[in-house]
Amino acid sequence: MELLKEVLEKIKPSEKERAIVNAVTKEIVGIAEEEIEKKGVSATPRLVGSIAKDTYLAGDHDVDLFLAFPLETSLEELRKTGLELGKSIGERLGHYEVAYAEHPYVRSTYKGFEVDIVPCYNVKSWKDVKTAVDRSLLHTEWVIKNINGRNDEVRLLKRFLKGIKAYGSEVYVRGFSGYLTELLIIKYGSFMNLLENVEFLGKSKIIDLEGWLRKEPEIAYKTVEREKESPLIVIDPVDPRRNVASALSWEKFGVFYFKAREFREKPRLEFFFPPKKETGDYKEILKKKGTHLVTLIFPKPELIDDILLPQLERSAKGFEKSLKREGFEVFDLNWGYVERAFIMLEVDRVERTKVLLKPGPEFLSERALDFYAKNQKVWIRGKRLYSEKAVKESIVDVIEELLAKNQVALGKNLREPIKEAEILLNFVPPELEEEAYLFLSKEKWNIKG
């Protein structure tokens, strides 16, 4: 297909770029080897990830340098020595910062390349795996051994998934990881063959490239059973205990499912390189739909996206649940940050009728007849007259009361900021106007695009 050739020309690294990548990664490994020798540490620098597997896209130069320690190293020693070694390598590269996953690692930059320096165990089998990152060594080896020249097919799939916003296994994306794209191409042989089989992929659900269900049935079937609610189960070729697609959400799988079918029917460059969406007036959309927009805005906490965005999601869903309990219909949710953090709720109304008890005078008093005449519903309790009064209660008051009573499930780092949030009705500040339009028009996630 000529279109795919055109896409590849844009996304495949040129020979010049490839030479630069190879030279820079060789320098980084050389610096690591020098620091390991200088410190007398028993560790081996190993390149993993898309650069090592030659499945990286043009311009995407993230280097994953793993420091593989012997299996007999204690976890405490691995963390301590690995971090010290990572820092010294980072200093040699020119700049570093410490980041945290299962254990601390070092992030650095060198000649425009982002470099992650991660300590791990030098595992040879899934039975040796002690930390989550150890498998990366096995993943790289397995893909290199099995990809059989289909590297460009992986590139096409990666770019397609990026174009439809379904790429990345981060908790705030829940899409297809790079490793998962490689396994899907190894399974189906090509980008187009995968798209042709997307219906079968959704129905068959289980992919077992290494035959673990036959070789290690007890362990592999436990994995299948544990992951049965996932949209896809891809038993890791290097570890029968793991579903490579465990991070994939039904929503992102659904987007891929429909976009794959749509591309088959009408292939277009826009799937890979979507044009910037044209925005309009979010207020006009609200008028047409007859719905309302509630926006909570508050200062963005100093948290990395991996922590902040899932907590914003949890908080948005907490408001949805609490407001539904209070009688408001919440049609959709949105969350994120621009200059400040925000939560958007599209709701059916911003006021509700609330009936209040209205005590009156004693029925033998002078005011009793007047109270009786003015109110539709009147009853007597003891000597006193009572009625009821219908009042309009704003959704803002309801939200403030829910927050005051701690009746909304919020992200643990967002409880105090959200309690101080500014609550806006059918209005957002200028920096959120585009976000509000994309959210309300459904252009942000519109699977029909």
Automatic annotation (TrEMBL):
Superkingdom of the source species: Archaea
UniProt binding sites for Mg(2+): 62, 64, 116
Gene Ontology biological-process entries: RNA repair; tRNA 3'-terminal CCA addition
Record-linked Gene3D superfamilies: Archaeal tRNA CCA-adding enzyme catalytic domain, Beta Polymerase, domain 2, CCA tRNA nucleotidyltransferase, domain 2, Poly(A) polymerase predicted RNA binding domain
Residues spanning the membrane: none
Cross-referenced NCBIfam families: cca_archaeal (TIGR03671)
Family designation: Belongs to the tRNA nucleotidyltransferase/poly(A) polymerase family. Archaeal CCA-adding enzyme subfamily.
PANTHER family membership: CCA-ADDING ENZYME
Protein name: CCA-adding enzyme
